[in-house]
Amino acid sequence: MNHNQAIGKWGEKAAEEYLRGKGFIILENNVRTPYGEIDIIASIEDLIVFVEVKTRTSRSFGYPEEALTYRKLGHMRASAEYYAARHAIGTWQCDAIAVERTQDAGTHIEHFENVTS
């Protein structure tokens, strides 16, 4: 596993902990579809949430959420539509979670809901 993959895994784990703390149930991780990978699939109440996690250890390359390009959002939506159709899921949305390591080695998380609507 290279450095970027390790940072990505750290961010995904932080995002999972955050979601669990908000009452979400984690259903699956790193699900591959023909349109891309879904980092986290979670549920809360009757809603399935497909989550893209963007992680940064510094702001040298900008905020994590700035990596959510129009193209990436399109892949997220296509991946979610594919998965939802294959699993007969009716109510769903795509969220993004930005994870940053703070200067004191802490974690800052920002949750963006329904990013592909």
Description:
Strands 1-2-3-4-5 form a five-stranded mixed beta sheet. The chain has one domain (3-112): Trna Endonuclease, Chain: A, domain 1. It starts with a helix and ends in a 5-residue tail after the last strand. Helices cover 31% and strands 38% of the residues. The mean pLDDT is 92. A hairpin with a 2-residue loop joins strand 2 (36-44) and strand 3. The radius of gyration is 14 Å and the shape is globular. It has helices at residues 3-21, 70-86; strands spanning 25-33, 36-44, 47-56, 92-101, 107-112. It contains two helices and five strands. It has 117 residues and is of the alpha+beta class.
- Summing up helix and strand content along with how strands pair, one would put the structural category as alpha+beta
Number of domains: 1
What's the helix count? 2
CATH architecture: 3-Layer(aba) Sandwich
Beta strand %: 35-45%
What multimeric state do the chains show? single chain
Q: How would you spell out the order of helices and strands?
A: HEEEHEE
Radius of gyration: 14 Å
Overall geometric form = globular
CATH hierarchy, class: Alpha Beta
Measured distance between first and last alpha carbons:
34 Å
Say what the CATH topology is.
Trna Endonuclease, Chain: A, domain 1
- Count of strand segments: 5
Lateral arrangement of strands in the main beta sheet? 1-2-3-4-5
Overall pLDDT: 92
The biggest sheet, with number of strands, parallel, antiparallel or mixed sense and barrel status, is: 5 strands, mixed
Which regions have little confidence, pLDDT < 50, spanning 5+ residues?
none
Helix content: 25-40%
